Amino acid sequence: SARAALERFEQVLAREPENRFALSRSGLALLRLGDLPQAIERLRQALATDPGQTETRALLAEALGHAGDYDAAAGEWLEVTRRQPSVARHWSNLGGALGRSGRAQEAVEALARASALEPESVERLSRLAFAEFGAGRLAAAAGHLLAAAENSPALEFSHAGALGMILQRLGRTAEARGWLARAGAGEAEFGPARLELPRIEIAAGNVEAARKALGEALGAAPELRSEASADPLLAVLLAAD
After folding, report:
1. 3-class DSSP state for residue 198?
2. Sequence-distant (≥ 6) Cβ neighbours of residue 219 within 8 angstroms
3. CA distances from 216 to 124, 165, 188, 219 (A)
4. In angstroms, rounded to a whole number, what is the distance separating the alpha carbons of residues 238 and 235?
5. What is the pLDDT of residues 70-107, one digit of tens each?
6. Which residues contact 22 (CB under 8 A, 6 or more apart)?
7. How far apart (Å, rounded) are the C-alpha atoms in residues 143 and 157?
8. Residue 148: per-residue pLDDT
9. What is the pLDDT of residue 115?
């Protein structure tokens, strides 16, 4: 266990306080135990003994990210990618830290590198798509999500709702309708996607389909009722219930 490992490495450090392996491994154990301040301190001590420990630097970046210090995490991930530029997950982690620190364009660039290294990865394409969305480039986001969907078996693509909402915002209603309808209940975007669908169905004259989709949206996310009530089209459906 992490606790037992930490105790073993503490014993080593009591005898050899600059043992870089024990410093790094104890930092990992502290990270796994959720003691972020101590993990960060220990991992920094390990790097002070040997700045070339890329694995230790990645652990430090991970710990900083968990602690919410995304700027510092991004700095460490940037150094990790400099040392190991062919590892996609490092670029992906860098992109995540950059995005959370508000550096949207840099996040897109990092996630594009990750996707280029693993072009068939649905996860890499999806993360790139959401970074593009965060940077305000909806068409690019839609393109990446469509590519991710093509690379994923039909039942495994988990962002159909998000793709549908982006396509709808782009005015591509016919495409959006199918993706919104395909959204699965396990998706984070399911409720908002199902709230978007009845607007399209009403415009097409499909009142029953609209009512069904609205019911699904509110069943999944009851907090959306106020938004639905404020929409004149959806309010009519609510009044009819």
Report:
1. helix
2. none
3. 30, 16, 14, 5
4. 5
5. 999 999 999 999 999 999 999 999 999 999 999 999 99
6. 9, 12, 13, 16
7. 14
8. 93
9. 97
Nearest of 8, 14, 48, 51 to residue 28 by alpha carbon = 8
pTM of the entire predicted model: 0.86
Per-residue pLDDT of 32-77, as tens digits, reads 999 999 999 999 999 999 999 999 999 999 999 999 999 999 999 9
Report which of 229, 167, 157 is spatially closest to residue 197, judged by C-alpha positions. 167
User: Which pLDDT score, from 0 to 100, does residue 152 have?
Assistant: 86
CA distance 33 to 189: 32
Q: Is 102 left (phi over 0), alpha (psi -120 to 50) or beta?
A: left
Question: What size, in residues, is the chain?
Answer: 241
- Cβ-based neighbour number of residue 190 at 10 Å: 21
Nearest CA to 130 among 122, 141, 121, 139?
A: 141
H helix runs in 33-159, sequence order:
36-49, 54-66, 70-83, 88-100, 104-117, 122-134, 138-150
3-state secondary structure (DSSP) of residue 121: coil
Q: How far is CA 40 from the centre of its chain?
A: 23
Sign, CA torsion 229/185/158/61: positive
Cβ atoms of 203 and 183 within 8 Å: the answer is no
Task: Work out the end-to-end distance of the chain between its first and last CA atoms, rounded to an integer number of angstroms.
Answer: 55
